[in-house]
Structures are given as structure tokens and as C-alpha cells.
Design brief:
single chain, alpha/beta, two-stranded antiparallel ribbon, 8-stranded parallel β-barrel
């Protein structure tokens, strides 16, 4: 069964997110650990977490993805900015162990702001080596980026270079964003198999733990990172449905980050993708 959900607000608690996910036929969801622009995280409520456990079980939610704030930049040329990233990551990972052990935590690797990708890669790895612990149950995911500006992670090679420098690399995986890699130049429309073979060769498909499923407002290799609704961009519905049904990817959780006015838009996308998934299973039997 397709594991799919969307990005939800955690402002009303974990139980509410499980309830909202179930209301749109989702069986997973993504959320920011705190305000996406940074700031202090809301205190955990034991009653909310208990209610979440019940609701998640009812909805068949076993996998969720927390997302780090966008403002974190462990590759910054400013020590204060790097220190903020270090403190926030450490705090988020500690909270994950209390609230939702055994889950996924995703982050944008960072931007080298003119220092060069090699320097950025080393700074990111240095930060992760300080926040990862041997006994943690959370898996930290580095997200594939579109390569705009001085972003690190716009190629599979850059992500592999970060992972190679991490001591406890068994706690690290990758979240693949379809919009980002398309904007980064990877042709998932005409050559999905080739892209996955390249990912496997450079990083290893065993590192791939989640997928952000987004269409793109821009042509391939634009390096712009502008999400579109499924089927309303340059990637297209058929290609994105093929991603969810690919035998090397179908077991992964998929997260919609498409621009929507409300949950009904996500519900429509989930229904359409579930219909394709159901049809492919019927055809294969």
C-alpha cells in the first residue's frame, strides 16, 4: 500500500496532525519541529503524545518525517549562524527521541555562501558529527537540493561527500525531492531508471529513506526550486505517479509539499496517486 501524506502544522499538536492526515486518506505526514524560520520549540505535552499514539495506530501511521527549520545553515561563514544550527539540531534530535523515537528527521544541508562547496561540505559534516549520538534511534536525512545560489547538496556527489565525512553514518540517510533533483538537472521524466542507478552508484539506494513528491514550475536544470501541484508542472502527473510505483521506491514514504490553499488539495492529489497505485497492483496480478 502506498505510504503517502503531506506537510501539516504541528501548532495544534501531534494528535491533531494524525487526525488531519487520516482525514485526507494519508498514512504518514511531515511537520516542522518548530517555526520554519527558527525560534523556540513548543513544549511537548505527554497527553497529546498519548492521544497521538492511539490515533496513529487507528490510521495506520507508522512512519513520520520531522523537518528542520529552513533558517539552519551549518555551512555558514558566520560562527554564530553555525552555532545556532548546532544547538537547534541537537535540541530537535533530543526531542525526537522523547516524542517519536525511531522516526525520520530531514534537513536542508546548507549554503556555503561563497566559501566553496568543499568548505561547506566539511562544515556540515563537522556539525553533524557533534549532534549524532551512538544510541539515537532517529535517522537524520539530508535533502537533495536544486543547486540554487550556493546551496550544498545540488548533486548526489555533494551529499555523498558529506556522508563520507560523518563518523556515525549509520544514522544518516537521504530524502529525495523530485522538484529539487529535476531543477538540479536529473531527468526523472525520461530516464527515472538511469537517475536511480546514478543515485545507487554515488550514494547507495539503501540510504534513501523518504521522498518529497513535488512537481516543478520550471524546466529541468533551472536550479530554481519552485514547487508546483502534481500534474501542473514540468514533471507531470504520469512521471510522478511512476516514481511512487517504481519497484525500487514503492516501499518508501512519500510527502507532498505542493502549494495548496487547504487540505482538500492534498486529498485530491493523494486520491489520484492512490488510484494509480491500486491500478498498477491490479494489473500486476
Amino acid at each position: 500500500m502506498l505510504t503517502i501524506g503531506c506537510h501539516l502544522s504541528c501548532s495544534k499538536g501531534y494528535a491533531n496532525m494524525a487526525r488531519e492526515a487520516a482525514s485526507i486518506d494519508g498514512n504518514t505526514f511531515q511537520f516542522f519541529t518548530r517555526n520554519p524560520r527558527g525560534g523556540k520549540a513548543k513544549a511537548l505535552d505527554p497527553n497529546d503524545l498519548d492521544a497521538y499514539d492511539v490515533l496513529a495506530a487507528e490510521a495506520g501511521i507508522t512512519r513520520i518525517l520531522a523537518h528542520a527549520p529552513y533558517t539552519l545553515n551549518p555551512a555558514s561563514n558566520k560562527e554564530q549562524t553555525r552555532e545556532f544550527a548546532l544547538m537547534t539540531l541537537a535540541d530537535d534530535l533530543a526531542r525526537m527521541e522523547v516524542a517519536t523515537p525511531g522516526q525520520l528527521y530531514n534537513m536542508h544541508p546548507g549554503s556555503h555562501v561563497g566559501q566553496g562547496s568543499e568548505v561547506g561540505i566539511q562544515l556540515i559534516a563537522d556539525t553533524l558529527n557533534q549532534v549524532l549520538t551512538p544510541d539515537m534511534t532517529t535517522t537524520l536525512l539530508l535533502e537533495t537540493m536544486a543547486g540554487k545560489g550556493s546551496e550544498v547538496g545540488g548533486t548526489f556527489e555533494e551529499l555523498a561527500a558529506i556522508i563520507e565525512r560523518i563518523d556515525l553514518d549509520e544514522h544518516v540517510g537521504v530524502c529525495l525531492d523530485t522538484c529539487h533533483i529535476w531543477d538540479g538537472g536529473y531527468d526523472i521524466v525520461e530516464d527515472l531508471d538511469g537517475v536511480l542507478d546514478e543515485f545507487d552508484r554515488v550514494i547507495g539506494l539503501d540510504r534513501l529513506r523518504a521522498i518529497h513528491l513535488n512537481d516543478s514550475l520550471n524546466p529541468r536544470a533551472s536550479h530554481k526550486d519552485r514547487h508546483a501541484r502534481i500534474g501542473e508542472g514540468h514533471i507531470g502527473f504520469d512521471a510522478l505517479a511512476a516514481v511512487t510505483m517504481h519497484p525500487k521506491l514503492a516501499h518508501l514514504p512519500f510527502y507532498l509539499e505542493t502549494p495548496q490553499d487547504d487540505l482538500s488539495g492534498y486529498a485530491q492529489e493523494i486520491a489520484a496517486l492512490r488510484a494509480c497505485d491500486k491500478g498498477s497492483h491490479q494489473m500486476s496480478h
